[in-house]
Amino acid sequence: MRTIDFVAKEMGRRKWKAAAGISCILLGISIFVAAQTTNEALYEKTKEQLLRFGANIIVQPKDEPFDAYSGSPGGSATLPEIYVNRIQNIEHSGMLVAVSPKLYERFEVGDVNLLVVGVTDDERQAKPWWMINKMVVTDEFPRGKQVLLGHYAGAHLGAVSPIKLDGETFAVTGVLDETGSADDFAAFVPLDVLQELTDNRRMVNLIEVSTSCIACPEMNLYDFVDEIDAALPDDAKVIAVKQIAEAQMGTLTKIGDFTRIISIVVLCLGAFLMMNYMSSSVSERRREIGILLAIGMDAGKIYKVFISKALILGVVGGLVGYAVGTLISMVAGPQIADTPVSPIFQLLPYSVVISTVICVISSILPARRATRLDPVEALREV
Amino acid sequence: MIEVKNITKTYGNIEVLKDVSLEIKNGDFISIVGPSGSGKTTLLNVVAGLLTPTEGEVMVDGVSLYKLSLKQRIAFRRKSFGFIFQTFNLLSYLTAIENVEIPLYLAGAKSADQKLVAKELLDRVGLKERLSHLPSELSIGEQQRVAIARALANNASVLLADEPTGNLDTKTGEEFMREIKRLNTEGVTVLLVTHDVEMAKFANRQVRIIDGRLVS
To answer: Among A10, A341, B29, B109, which one has the highest count of C-beta atoms within 10 angstroms of its own C-beta?
Structure first.
């Protein structure tokens, strides 16, 4: 017999008691996992919603006023398009959702003075809310001599196809649903086509950058601004859209803080329950501990037995707690976060380690109590 | 040899043992008899190294038991003494063989050796066929035989038994005592505490204790 056999036999033949012990830590771990998993889904959903406010970083020529995109005509200062590549190659480029360069020009189309924006494929990443008849824009995204019209631009032009821009014919691929932004009044053509048309080859007015990581522990929005700024020459100005950034960072930080507090409270509760369980186990087993002390069990062996039991409870509690917590979050999460919740497999090792550490720490005091039991007193109960 | 020298044990103002001295030679079989509350179990606990006396000392083969540190005393007890308590002293969740393995496990013996020795001992007390039975599946007499095997597991030279027949019927009690007597003839020193004068007769020497004093 080894210590682990001794403990496993005791737990195996007193299944209900072992189950009671596991349930103490399972409660804490499952709520921890459920909170983290639901929070992650909520975080992703909130992030997606917040990103709809627009790009969170703007790169523009140094002396250009910020309202370039809100309708300033062409002819304003430009930046080389090559800056897009530099931004795409920053150290944390993996966290960039879209790097979307733009060129603006105004054209007279019939009686409408139309703002035409040259865009690349990244525009679709940056603006997932672009819809046509409530369907995501796919084939309607302009290629070659094609134009996609904003909602009111389409309404003004009467959705006539094709339209002429500076004498060139463009087929209308579709009219966007209303977005409530400046996009409603603009028309969108491929960037290279507009560059050609306006003789602004390889130049852009503005680069919009959307990051996926707004308030991550390792990178916040202002860290991205610094990183992009370092990658670009002095003629470019990198601006965090502060109101958006602060709202985004504030909301996401609050969600994270709330989850952390809940997690700490439930894990403390789990530790308290586990310590209680171990202590009552010492009280209930006084007679047995007395016999073992009398026949020669020393303090070291008692600690070994208690810690082995804590390890088993911790590992099993962590595994089962992870499964139960994930299940809870998948069932209840969609109702709380209003979004589907997926399991986070990376939480599994954390659950097991946290559970085991809590169980081991919670068993030390009860084990110490057991080592101090007077065998004569305990044997009187035999 | 065990020498109990002028042992006094008090709890507050109550003197449970009063200047008790006793010599137990190797291979002896001594029974301590006395009425309930006379101090016999207290004396056994003091001899076993479980209860520090207020005065006096216990020498086992020249070693003063209470001059050892607690850790040394536990190790000494594990090596030298085997214990048999009144019934219900087996761990309920371990089988007969596992119960006998415990002292060997506590002494750090290898798993394979533990099994071998435990099997041999249970065979010796006639329980070869009951190795994998839980205590609840054994009769009280069989449980006591498992307890004997466990007491002998570490090759203990001294067997300390506290009312071992207290919960047995007369026939089972006598069988148990014959087993103890047989072990004594094989060289094991036995110190038996009992209030049953019939069982005490199995010993070579009887000592009476009344109100904490040895009277014969």
So the answer is: A341
- ipTM score here? 0.83
**Rounded to an integer, what is the distance from CA B177 to the centroid of its chain?**
13
CA distance A295 to chain B (A): 6
Q: Which residues of A touch B85 (CB under 8 A)?
A: 291, 294, 379, 382
Which residue in the set A294, A297, A299 is minimally distant from B50, CB to CB?
A: A294
CB-CB contact of B59 with B3 (8 Å): yes
Structure tokens at A208: 């919009």
pLDDT band at A256 (very low <50, low <70, confident <90, very high): confident
Please write the tens of the pLDDT for every residue from A88-116: 999 988 888 889 999 999 999 888 889 99
Burial A56-84 (b: 16+ CB within 10 A, else e): bbbbbbeebeeebbeebebeeebbbbebb
Query: d(Cα A120, Cα B194) in Å, to the nearest integer?
Result: 99
Q: Is A372 on the interface with B (CB under 8 A)?
A: no
Task: Tell me the two tokens of residue B99.
Answer: 């119960």
- From the number of C-beta atoms within 10 Å of its C-beta (0-12, 13-18, 19+), residue B36 rates as exposed
DSSP structure string for A196-208? HHTT-TTEESEEE
Is a pLDDT exceeding 70 seen at residue A351?
A: yes
Q: Are A317 and A13 in contact (CB under 8 A)?
A: no
SS3 of A226, please? helix
Is the model's pLDDT at A19 over the cut of 80? yes
Q: What is the mean pLDDT of residues B168-182?
A: 84
Phi/psi region, residue B212 (left: phi>0; alpha: psi -120 to 50; beta: rest), is left
Task: Please provide the average confidence, as pLDDT, over all residues in chain A.
Answer: 84
* CB–CB contact B93 A291 (8 Å): no
CB contact under 8 A, A301 and B45: no
Q: What is the pTM of this model?
A: 0.66
DSSP secondary structure letter of residue B157? S
Alpha helices in A285-380 (DSSP H): 286-294, 299-337, 347-371, 375-380
Nearest of B108, B11, B7 to residue B58 by alpha carbon: B7
Instruction: Give the C-alpha separation, A324 to B141, whole Å.
Output: 47
What is the 8-class DSSP label of residue A215? B
Mutate to test the interface with B, among A13, A14, A295 (most CBs of B within 10 A): A295
